[in-house]
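Try this one yourself first.
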């Protein structure tokens, strides 16, 4: 049997890909720990802090499909190397940024690099590993992709304890240099042999549409879902993405072949990935605040206590990869989504008297469910496409992650905010208007106001703030539980048990002499 280029080095290649992926996974979570320091050292406003985080996310999500398509055309190793260089340059510039405004721009540059790195890692993996080993390799890839979420706060806290805030960016540079050198030496430069023409119109429409959509999702909780700015963003996203779909359907060289979505394996798996990350990011949004404000841990202590979810992901994901061929995608994805729902439900039963033990059990269950669902869902997406289209397929997988995560924070955050405001309201009578407004803005502010008030009234306000936070969090997590159960049902109904004999979506193409043929993975033209 003839193997793809790089087959003999495939596990070493996977190591380089995972190292490249880890840098991206660490980036946002490691930065969150440094935000208070940026306020002190750079004088960053609340709005600037939000843009330091969001500039990366917006550019990253908006460019993914375009970057994936370019990697298919010009070579995946080339795209990976380009992304690493840009990401490394952005990290170096961020470390020495002299102002918050400069840091926003350098973070956007890092987003461009990340958009080329992430889809390249999965598409290279898909091309190097044969179908019978792909599930196991994707399991390791999926475990590493979740690892940064857990260890980012710990690494960030340690760096801030011993160095200055720029170290959270500077730490990326030696990793990027090593990955560049190792990648050049051992990673093959696979690409789409048909080399379709570029689709600049599709690229522009996808970038504008996705940035508008993600911007609206991110900003909605703070502005309000009916705010004119948010409605404009969603309206623009709807118009531009509809135009993108129309253009791609009519184009003879589409950036994203929408015929892929006729394959239930591809579509149902993308929905599952979206909902898994909806649950993960939505729950982490609550957890970090609960650990710090309600249980009183520092940012570093809270990071240590979230880290077990990363351990579970890195242990269970490779095991799940081995089970894909035995149990099939349908069973594993549905079981995983059901387990995620169980973890969210148990977390939603927190009370004012609950401690970290309750949280630990929840995140262990949550991490197990994520690992069970994410690996076979990702394998389904990549296995349902021709190898030549692995770049844009990987980008689609990554785009659904970003949108799902942003939706989780936005929707569950909005449910939480309305419940928190309503529950705390009766306890704010008698306070000055400014103090009451501050207390309703966040549990941290409410605790600060209570401590300022002091005495019995202050203690009562602090207790009420913590209780209101937990009740509101429980309500948000209940919504997350329901959404995840819907994902499990979608998997059971529409996701095939396993790939059919001809794995990839069949594509109609024209030979020069005009004879229509079918092309699929593993079938020679």
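Now uncover the answer:
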């Amino acid at each position: 049997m003839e193997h793809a280029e790089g087959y003999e080095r495939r596990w070493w290649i996977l190591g380089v890909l995972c190292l490249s992926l880890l840098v991206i996974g660490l980036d946002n979570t490691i930065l969150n720990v440094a935000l208070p320091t940026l306020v002190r050292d750079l004088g960053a406003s609340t709005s600037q802090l939000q843009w330091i985080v969001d500039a990366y996310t917006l550019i990253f999500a908006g460019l993914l499909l375009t970057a994936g398509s370019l990697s298919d055309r010009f070579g995946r190793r080339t795209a990976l190397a380009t992304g690493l260089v840009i990401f490394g340059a952005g990290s170096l510039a961020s470390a020495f940024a002299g102002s918050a405004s400069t840091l926003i721009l350098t973070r956007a540059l890092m987003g461009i690099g990340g958009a080329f790195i992430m889809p390249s890692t999965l598409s290279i993996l898909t091309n190097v590993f044969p179908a019978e080993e792909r599930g196991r390799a994707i399991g390791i890839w999926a475990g590493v992709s979740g690892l940064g979420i857990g260890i980012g706060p710990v690494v960030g806290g340690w760096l801030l304890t011993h160095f200055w805030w720029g170290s959270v960016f500077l730490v990326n540079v030696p990793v990027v240099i090593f990955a560049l050198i190792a990648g050049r030496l051992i990673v093959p430069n696979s690409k789409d042999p048909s080399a379709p023409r570029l689709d600049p119109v599709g690229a522009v429409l996808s970038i504008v549409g996705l940035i508008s959509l993600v911007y609206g999702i991110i900003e909605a909780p703070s502005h309000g879902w009916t705010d004119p700015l948010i409605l404009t963003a969603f309206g623009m996203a709807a118009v531009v993405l509809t135009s993108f779909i129309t253009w791609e359907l009519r184009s003879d060289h589409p950036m994203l072949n929408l015929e892929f979505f006729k394959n239930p394996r591809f579509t149902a798996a993308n929905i599952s990935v979206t909902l898994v990350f909806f649950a993960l990011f939505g729950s982490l949004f609550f957890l970090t605040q609960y650990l710090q404000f309600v249980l009183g841990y520092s940012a570093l202590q809270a990071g240590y206590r979230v880290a077990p979810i990363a351990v579970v992901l890195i242990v269970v994901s490779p095991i799940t990869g081995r089970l894909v061929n035995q149990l099939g995608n349908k069973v594993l994805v549905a079981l995983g989504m059901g387990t995620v729902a169980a973890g969210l439900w148990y977390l939603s039963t927190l009370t004012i008297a609950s401690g970290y033990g309750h949280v630990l059990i929840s995140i262990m269950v949550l991490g197990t469910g994520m690992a069970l669902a994410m690996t076979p869902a990702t394998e389904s997406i990549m296995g349902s496409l021709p190898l030549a289209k692995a770049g844009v397929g990987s980008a689609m997988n990554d785009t659904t992650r970003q949108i799902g995560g942003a939706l989780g924070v936005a929707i569950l955050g909005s449910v939480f905010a309305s419940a928190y405001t309503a529950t705390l309201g009766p306890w704010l009578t008698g306070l000055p208007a400014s103090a009451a407004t501050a207390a309703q803005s966040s549990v941290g502010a409410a605790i600060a106001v209570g401590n300022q008030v002091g005495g019995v009234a202050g203690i009562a306000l602090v207790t009420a703030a913590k209780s209101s936070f937990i009740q509101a969090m429980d309500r948000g997590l209940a919504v997350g539980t329901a959404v995840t159960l819907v994902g499990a049902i979608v998997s059971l109904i529409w996701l095939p048990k396993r790939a059919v004999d001809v794995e990839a979506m069949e594509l109609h193409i024209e030979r020069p002499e005009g004879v229509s043929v079918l092309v699929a993975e593993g079938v020679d033209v």
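Discussion: Confidence is low (pLDDT under 50) at residues 500-525. The two ends are 18 Å apart (CA to CA).
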